[in-house]
Amino acid sequence: MTGRRTVPPVSTINLKTGPGASAANHPYPQRSPVLGLVFGGVQVLVTTSAGDRITVDDLEFARCLAREAASFARSVERMFHGLPNGEGVAVR
User: Fold this and answer.
1) 28 CA to centre of own chain
2) What is the pLDDT of residues 43-68, one digit of tens each?
């Protein structure tokens, strides 16, 4: 997405990863894809505003999501990398 957020969020939902957390892309031949995120008993589905067409805004959001997910993965790897116990770093 381009630009800055001008409206503050109405609410914030914090979903923590752990055993059983997963992310999967579900492509469909006749409609837009769905990104499924599972956090224990909570499932989040991300899709485009219209199920049968893709807009420029949808494409920009998907690319932004991919960039931020890759950045998140690098940050997690940086925290975990090279620890002798394999337990990760406790963030304080």
Assistant:
1) 19
2) 999 998 887 889 999 999 999 999 99
* pTM score, whole prediction: 0.74
Q: Alpha-carbon distance 20 to 72, whole Å?
A: 18
CA distance 75 to 68: 10
CA distance 47 to 33: 6
**C-alpha to C-alpha distances, 38 to 9, 29, 35, 43, 82, nearest whole angstrom:** 22, 23, 10, 4, 28
Could you please report the per-residue DSSP string of the chain? --S---S--S--------TT-EEEEE--SSS--EEEEEETTEEEEE--SSTT---HHHHHHHHHHHHHHHHHHHHHHHHHTT-TTSS-----
Q: Which residue in this structure is represented by tokens 């893709």?
A: 54
List the structure tokens of 70: 């890759």
